[in-house]
Design brief:
The protein is α/β, with parallel strands linked by helices. About 40% of the residues lie in helices and about 20% in strands. About 50% of the residues are buried.
Length: about 375
């Protein structure tokens, strides 16, 4: 499989729904739905200042991509599971009377031969208009969702989004942007990685890549390897081989002013394990900075637990113990390749990026439109 590139150039934590005491004006509500290879996740939010306030949410492991690696098609059972989850999303959208929304799907539907039939079935049975987005837009949305976590001291930034079916990496040069303007410069990338001249300081996208290996697709590549440790090592090196055409992979990078931001269920699960959380808490995980030694310690702990021990770990669970190892293999490969001893953890991704992009385009953010 060849990574997708621009021309010219997990374990997933469970989202806990929290009701709000007062219902906001329905005209101000926005929705974003991300249907990935493993999970169906949605946020309904209201603009607030330069960000937003979450009104309602939904997250469920639907495993849409089960069997896709082998057959090239979405299976009937995975489509049925997914449509059941989408019906719940449709009910939430209707109950909140949401008018502004964007509902997207990614790698599994990009690859499946019957994805168009599936999207028509979703429309027919739920009324929801799913849209397949391309890798560059998926990467852009992941990047802008992480803008608030970027340090004003960061000059070179690597944003990594480890999904179920693919992994997006974006390398951004911020050295020509004044420190205080760097988060806003990243937010402006929602319009495209290669934009026309702008009166604002611009973030330069050095390179980006979409590797068609995520936690599910990488796991499926090595299902026949029985030994847990050997399978992990093979997955990590196999993923690194797919980075060979990513421009920054070939160059020696300076450690000073360099930041990696990781957004995925893998990264947040590793962070939760590091913190020893009994129950997942987004407020403690989002924005956490972990050292490479701390990450390595957690991953070694996963290997020592073995498959049965990981199944019993409440932060991982029965259906995700294999996914956390493929995600950890990707994470380890990234830390092996680039000169950093810290990683910023982002409990945010496509949904947040979709919300920021919609709200920014409508000019309802305090510091927008970007």
């Amino acid at each position: 499989m060849t990574p997708r590139r621009s021309k010219g150039a997990g374990a997933f934590p469970k989202v806990v729904e929290t009701p709000v005491p007062a219902r906001p004006d329905s005209d101000a509500l926005y929705a974003a739905l991300d249907l990935g290879t493993n999970s169906c996740r949605m946020l309904i939010a209201q603009p607030k200042g330069s960000g937003f306030h979450v009104v309602d949410s939904f997250s469920k492991s639907v495993q849409l991509g089960t069997g896709l690696e082998r057959t090239g098609r979405l299976s009937r059972s995975s489509m049925a599971r997914t449509i059941q989850a989408l019906r719940i999303c449709q009910q939430k959208l209707k109950r909140n009377r949401v008018k502004r929304m964007r509902l997207v799907t990614t790698e599994a539907c990009r690859r499946a031969k019957n994805s168009r039939e599936f999207i028509r079935q979703v429309k027919r049975e739920t009324g929801l208009p799913l849209e397949i987005i391309q890798p560059e837009e998926e990467a852009r949305l992941a990047v802008i969702s992480c803008a608030p976590l970027v340090s004003t001291k960061t000059e070179q930034l690597l944003v990594v989004d480890i999904g179920g079916g693919s992994t997006e990496l974006v390398w951004i040069d911020l050295s020509s942007v004044p420190g205080r303007d760097r988060p806003a410069a990243i937010m402006r990338l929602h319009a495209g990685f290669h934009t026309a001249a702008s009166p604002f300081p611009t973030a330069k996208v050095v390179d980006w890549i979409s590797v068609p290996l995520g936690v599910a697709t990488l796991r499926d590549q090595f299902n026949d390897v029985e030994d847990d440790s050997a399978r992990f090592a093979l997955m990590s090196w196999f993923f690194e081989e797919h980075l060979a055409n990513f421009a920054p992979y070939k160059d020696v990078q300076a450690r000073a002013g360099f930041q990696i931001v990781g957004t995925s269920g893998t990264v947040t699960t590793v962070a939760a394990s590091h913190l020893g959380l009994k129950r997942y808490d987004r407020t403690k995980v989002d924005g956490l900075r972990m050292t490479s030694d701390q990450i390595d310690k957690v991953i070694r702990g996963y290997l020592e637990l073995g498959p049965n021990g990981r199944r019993r770990d409440p932060r991982i669970g029965e259906d995700r113990q294999a996914l956390i190892m493929s995600g950890s293999a990707i994470l380890q490969a990234l830390l092996r390749c680039w000169p950093t001893d810290r990683l910023s953890v982002a409990d945010r991704g496509l949904r947040e990026g979709l919300l920021y992009a919609q709200m920014s385009a409508d000019g309802v953010l305090e510091d927008g439109p970007f």
